[in-house]
Automatic annotation (TrEMBL):
<keyword id="KW-0812">Transmembrane</keyword>
<keyword id="KW-0378">Hydrolase</keyword>
<keyword id="KW-0482">Metalloprotease</keyword>
<dbReference type="InterPro" id="IPR027057">
    <property type="entry name" value="CAXX_Prtase_1"/>
</dbReference>
<keyword id="KW-0479">Metal-binding</keyword>
<keyword id="KW-0862">Zinc</keyword>
<dbReference type="Pfam" id="PF01435">
    <property type="entry name" value="Peptidase_M48"/>
</dbReference>
<feature type="transmembrane region" description="Helical">
    <location>
        <begin position="302"/>
        <end position="325"/>
    </location>
</feature>
<keyword id="KW-1133">Transmembrane helix</keyword>
<feature type="transmembrane region" description="Helical">
    <location>
        <begin position="114"/>
        <end position="135"/>
    </location>
</feature>
<feature type="transmembrane region" description="Helical">
    <location>
        <begin position="337"/>
        <end position="356"/>
    </location>
</feature>
<dbReference type="InterPro" id="IPR032456">
    <property type="entry name" value="Peptidase_M48_N"/>
</dbReference>
<feature type="domain" description="CAAX prenyl protease 1 N-terminal">
    <location>
        <begin position="56"/>
        <end position="216"/>
    </location>
</feature>
<feature type="transmembrane region" description="Helical">
    <location>
        <begin position="162"/>
        <end position="180"/>
    </location>
</feature>
<dbReference type="Pfam" id="PF16491">
    <property type="entry name" value="Peptidase_M48_N"/>
</dbReference>
<feature type="transmembrane region" description="Helical">
    <location>
        <begin position="187"/>
        <end position="210"/>
    </location>
</feature>
<protein>
    <submittedName>
        <fullName>M48 family metallopeptidase</fullName>
    </submittedName>
</protein>
């Protein structure tokens, strides 16, 4: 445990130093002071403006979203314990060994044995986890009014997810077991490489092959909104030729958008909630953020940072797998690390160490999201638009967490921080005619 914490600390310190360097660079650029503020806006206070936005939420609504989000902290733990319990069941009952013995009679090719073993393994773990998945993804989402799917639709989505998992999971596991058998003591380095390559592969094909399985995408008709979005894209160096709308409203009312694609497949996607429920200012504010991810190369930075975490996780799995097999291998009937009967153990250890890496992974994404927020404010110049969106998104997020809570559990900055950043930006731009005009037409707390 000490070693895990030491590794975590190194990752965290690296991330903090990267963040600190970024802040120093930003701080070195002089900010032009606006001396020409009219008296009415000279007293703009970002704290007061932020609190005015938060005051739009009733105490009941705030209590509800806090309860939803805080419950999520515990669910992460229950998810882990459940997954470890399922692994223990498969190993302890020797079900895993029995499946392996059968698979070994079917073929002598070991890579094929792994793939065949992986099919009942993935189906069984999905089925055994279904009660918890159903509570988390269906029952609880309805309790908090965050989902409008019926059971049939939800189960349909689960079946599609399982299919995707079966196709890619069997190949991934076969590759990992191949390097465990071939590379010997250095297998974990190769496996981490395969893990990173797999993340790149799946994120590349996802917008084109996976997302359409779950949502219908259609080209946005030629409206002034579309022209405005494409103009914004051109202005920010995004080579997108078209804007798509997808039907997220059949699942929930959450607004969302993304700029997806690599290697010449760039596209801008807006969900129908964003289009149907938002003002132009809100849509542009959201798209400014999404374009920030693209322009600031967040995808590549994310892969690099995640790659570091994946290497550390596999190193820890390697170390603990050896120890576990020496202590429990004979009892569970697992011959060695390359024995496919140990798959539940391997996956359990991966799950455990990825769970422990949660604050590091969240800090990576939270840092990136903060940068995208700042880019979006500069690109769209809609501080009130984005603040309104953050208030709307508060249904499923705790708005005012403690700093430690935000560090551990938040993959985006908290609602308070995001609104506050928008209001600080607004305060620094009140001398600009467009922002002043917005302020006159859309006073704080309106809409
Ligand atoms: Zn983002």
């Amino acid at each position: 445990m000490k070693q895990v914490l030491a590794f975590m600390l190194v990752v965290v310190l690296m991330l903090v130093s990267i963040a600190a360097t970024a802040h120093q660079v930003a701080g070195a650029i002089p900010v032009a002071a606006s001396n020409t503020l009219p008296p009415s806006v000279a007293h703009f206070d970002a704290d007061v403006a932020t609190n005015a936005y938060l005051a739009q939420l009733s105490p009941e609504a705030k209590a509800k979203s806090d309860a939803y989000f805080e419950g999520g902290y515990w669910l992460m733990l229950w998810d882990l314990l459940w997954a470890l319990g399922v692994a223990w069941l498969l190993l302890g009952t020797r079900l895993s060994v029995r499946v392996r013995d059968r698979v070994e009679r079917l073929t002598r090719f070991r890579w094929l044995q792994t793939m065949i073993y992986a099919v009942p393994y993935l189906v069984l773990t999905t089925v055994l986890t279904l009660p918890l998945t159903f509570y988390e993804g269906y029952v609880r989402e309805h309790q908090y009014g965050l989902s409008n799917q019926d059971v049939g639709q939800w189960l349909g989505d689960q079946a599609k997810s399982l299919m995707v998992t079966l196709i890619f999971g069997t190949v991934l596991l076969a590759m990992i077991y191949a390097v465990i058998r071939k590379a010997g003591r250095t297998w974990w380095i190769w496996a981490a490489g395969i893990g990173v390559a797999f993340v790149i592969f799946s994120t590349t094909i996802q917008p084109v092959y996976i997302d359409p399985l779950f949502n219908t995408y259609k080209s946005l008709p030629d409206t002034p909104l579309k022209a405005e979005i494409l103009s914004m894209a051109r202005a920010n160096g995004i080579p997108a030729a078209n804007v798509y709308e997808y039907d997220a409203s059949r699942r929930s009312s959450v607004v969302s958008a993304n700029v997806s694609g690599l290697f010449g497949t760039t596209r801008i996607n807006l969900n129908d909630n964003l289009i149907n429920r938002s003002t132009i200012a809100q849509i542009e504010g959201v798209l400014g953020h999404e374009m920030g991810h693209y322009v600031l190369n967040h995808y590549y930075k994310f892969i690099l940072a995640l790659g570091v975490i994946i290497v550390i996780v596999f190193a820890l799995v390697n170390w603990s797998l050896g120890w576990m097999l020496r202590s429990w291998g004979a009892r569970w009937g697992i011959r060695d690390a390359g024995d496919v009967a140990g798959m539940p153990l391997l996956v359990a250890l991966l799950t455990l160490f990825f769970f422990i890496s949660t604050p590091a992974r969240n800090t990576v994404t939270r840092t990136i999201e903060t940068e995208a927020d700042i880019f979006g404010l500069n690109a769209a110049r809609e501080p009130d638009g984005v603040a309104q969106v953050y208030v709307a998104l508060s249904k499923s997020r705790k708005m005012c967490p403690s700093p430690a809570e935000e560090f551990i559990f938040f993959d985006h900055p908290s609602g308070w921080n995001r609104i506050h950043r928008a209001m600080v930006w607004k305060g620094e731009h009140l001398g600009d005619p467009d922002i002043r005009a917005q302020d006159a037409t859309a006073p704080l707390g309106a809409r």
